[in-house]
Every structure is written in structure tokens, then in C-alpha cells.
Amino acid sequence: MSATISRQQSARNAEAPQPFGWLAIVRLGLVQFSLGAIVVLTTSTLNRVMVVELALPALLPGLLVALHYAVQMLRPRMGYGSDMMGRCTPWIIGGMAVLATGGVLAATATATLAENFPLGALLSFFAFAMIGVGVSASGTSVLVLLAKRVEDHRRAAAATIVWLMMILGLAMTAGITGHLLDPYSHERLLLIAFTVSLIAVCVSLIALVRLEGSPGSINSAADGNTAARVSFTEALREVWSEQSARQFTIFVFVSMLAFSAQDLILEPFAGIVFQFTPGETTKLSGLQHAGVLCGMVLCAVACGRFGSRWMGLQFGSLRAWTVGGCLASALALIGLVAAGIIGGSYPIRANVFLLGLFNGAFSIAAIASMMRLASAGRGHREGTRVGLWGAAQAIAFGTGGLIGAAASDFSRYWIDDPGIAYGVVFFAEAGLFLIAARLAFRIEPRQQPQPTAQESTSYAAKWKRKEHHEPAI
């Protein structure tokens, strides 16, 4: 009898998915690289073309970018679809195809605006809606796959790798396309958009070949592992009823609102209060981004297998990095309040770098925490949970910049001193980070069952115990 049970356990373990190694994580990073390449082409390059070359009001590209964020409220539905299918790869590929098509259509619409504005505007709104759908499907499913297949001690590093590769895709595409667009022509724009989109889809397809495994390797219907066949509304209601999922959704919204609200006002603040030139404010923004990258890497190292055990001290707690990053970000924003009061003698560059450092650290810790929490709760609802959190992030990003800019205009209208006026807005953002830190502290991570000595070397056994809640044999 014991031998029969052992053979059955071995057969189940053989079908269980293996954990992602670093190469598999990098391959998913290539998908994010491709996603970032198309997104920056549509939200940055086409934005500039509409405003500068076509002399259109900046409101139009602003509305288009806001639309692409608003459409991402579909993320929970996309995640639910991957839960029902039991696979993420089809959703990633389908999302990239829709995203690439939307990118080419957006370039076509931009060229059409010069000749036929009503038709070009209609095509633009349709194209950016497609871009939002594509980002929702592919981006959500990439995170779901990472959450399911990356071991706990690698999650912070995996999140850093994937996000750095997306940033690399943004930077490389912006630089290369900016060079190739000179001298500008509609034909050149269309050729670049088609080429970038085609390369992005091809790179994604190559990166995903045999990455996830055979159908059903994660959620096999034969083993009863698929998510219960309920409606999307019911699945979303189940997820929202989970305390940790609900708290994390609110945390994501508040923290990302604070994170994004500073984007549109930091450079004007430096220009008005410190008399920085446009070139100097651009460098200041670059310094902040450098700080974000350093913070991401620092958190990844500290939360890794070795960083968490350095000199016997627990530096690898995701909760500590999330809460600490939010608190430190609030402190850095208080520093900007002081900068507005003190003026030119204040070390603004160092303050902005530290703000970026703390922002990067808390964001990676939050993403790694999301990967851990995605498998918590009832049923197989990883996609629905990740989609819900992605929608909260998109809504926060879509409204944060607008709220920050509007708040700065309002405070400057009522307060004569621009430094103090901006300081009021920074102080409010610091308050949001304090609220986010409190929310993050209250989120209780799921306690995973401890494996026996025999199972500790088998990821498949740990996965099976987690999914079925089976005792060790």
C-alpha cells in the first residue's frame, strides 16, 4: 500500500511545474522588454509628434494616455480568463498581438490627423483602447506566471529583473526611434511603428517557447486543480471578500497614487523655485530615475537568499522593505517641503535621488509581496487577484499625475510663495505614503506549511502540498 501511494505521489510530482530559474525569469523579462518598447512608442513618441510636428493641443494625447489607463480596469477580467484556462501563455501572446496592432494603428491615426482630424481622432481613441487591452492581457499574465512559478526567495530579484528589462525596453526604443525619426515624415513614422511592433511580437514568441509547459501543467482538470467554474462577478466577489486581497488592493492604489502624483510637478518645482533650466530639470528627473533603479537593486539583493541572512540579521523581510520604503519616501517628500521653504541653498539633487531610491525599494518589495499574496486565499484565483491589483495601479497612475498637477495649480493660486505652494502638495503626498505604510503593515502574509526534511529538496512536492493541502507521506 505504501509503495502504491509513493508511486502515485511520484506521478503527481512528475507532472507538477518546475520552479523558474534565472534564465526563465529573464525570458519573461524579454516579454516585458517588448511590451515597454511598444508602450513608449505610443505614449511618448506619438505624444511628441502630435504636439510638436502636428501642432495639436496637448489635451489630445493626454486624453489618449488616460484612456489607455482607464481600459486597464479590464485587468481582473483578463486574469480571470487565465484562471479559467489554467494557462498564461495564450493570454500573453494574445495581449502582445493586440498591443502591437494597436501600436501600428496609433501611428496610422497620428498620420491621419494631419489630413483628416475627425477620422484620425476616432482611430486614435480606438488604437489606444486596444493598447490598454493588450497591456492588460499580457502584463497581467506575465505577473501571474511569475507568481506561480518563482520561489519565494527569488521573488524580489525576479521582480527587479523583469522591471529593469521593461525600463530598458522603454529607454532603448525611445532613443533609437528618436534618432530614426529625423527628419520626420509620416511614412517614416509608420515604418518605425510597424518594425518595432513586429520585432516585439517575435521576441515575445521566441521567449515564451516551451516556457510554461504543457497544457494543464499548472492547473490540471484531472487533478481537480482548476479554479471553480464560477462567473467573473462571483470570482471577483470571492477575491474581494479576502481580507489580505482587499487590503493589498487599497494599499496599491494609495501608494501608487502618491508615487505618480509627483511626476508632473517635480520638474516645474525645480524650475520655479530653484531656477533650473530645462536641461537641468531633465537631468534632475534622470537622477530620480537612477535612484529608482538603485533602490530596486538594493531591495532585490537584501531580499534574496543571502541578503536576508547577512550577519544573522533579517534584512530580507518584504513587509519591512515595503513599510520602510513608504515611510522613507514620506520623509524624502518632507525634505522637498523644506526645500520649498529654504530655497536655493537646499541640496535638492541629493533629496531627489533619495526619493527615487526609496520609491524603487518599496515598489519592488510591493511587487514581490504581490507575487506571494497572489496564491493566498481560496481556490485558484491568482489571475483575478493580480488583475485586481493591476487595475488599482492603473487607476492610480491615470489619476495621480492629474491630481498632482491640479493640486499644484490650486495651491499656487491661493498661496503667493511658489515654494510653499508646492510644499503643500508634497506634504499631502507624504501623508499618502504614511497611509500606505500603515496599510502595508496591517497586511498579514499567508503562512505556508513547512515541508518535511524529505520534501525540502522537492519543489514539486511543496507545490502539490500547497495546492492540495496534502500531508507529507
Could you explain how this protein is built, in words?
This protein has 473 residues and is mainly alpha-helical. The chain folds into two domains: 21-211, Growth Hormone, Chain: A (Up-down Bundle); 231-446, Growth Hormone, Chain: A (Up-down Bundle). The protein has 17 helices and no strands. The longest helix has 33 residues, at 117-149. It is globular and about 60 Å long. The termini are close together.
Index terms:
17 helices; 2 domains; Growth Hormone, Chain: A; 473 residues; disordered C terminus
List the helices and strands and how they pair.
Elements (H helix, E strand, L loop, with lengths): L1 H14 L6 H32 L5 H12 L4 H11 L3 H25 L3 H33 L5 H26 L5 H23 L23 H10 L1 H19 L4 H8 L4 H25 L15 H25 L5 H26 L8 H33 L3 H25 L16 H10 L5
Helix pairs in contact: 2-3, 2-5, 2-6, 2-7, 2-8, 3-6, 3-15, 4-6, 4-15, 5-6, 5-8, 6-14, 6-15, 7-12, 7-14, 10-14, 10-15, 10-16, 11-12, 12-14, 13-14, 13-16, 15-16
